# Entry
Amino acid sequence: MIINGGSFFDERGEIKFVNDFNFEGIKRFYQIQNYKKFYIRAWHGHKFETKYFYVSQGAILLGKVNLESYKVEKFVLTASQPKIIKIPNNHANGFMNLTSNTNIIVFSDKTLDESKGDDIRFPYDKWNIWNIENH
# Structure
């Protein structure tokens, strides 16, 4: 699921928003800041946890993998085009910075303790989507 946002400009500056995102069920959020361009963090899955990714600075290539069918989807998220991507339960996610100093905010429907018991890791190249020439 993609929840599109937008931005508004005037003489004072810019407002970025994703007005259709509903925080009901969100129990925590955290921020990831990667400094290096093309840095990869992958793959991290959950059977029960749902996450939502939002890029507040920079840009990423985000991958989403269904852990039953192994269907892979990929998205480009940028701070200049606000949107939120939902990573449902029973999916894995991974991402690569497309710019340096990228900032990502992740919202979760589970507490940290709930998430710890639901952690599935795969090697970064398990689903090798990182060649940006093919995107």
About this structure: The helical segments are 112-116. Residues 64 and 93 are 5 Å apart (CA to CA).
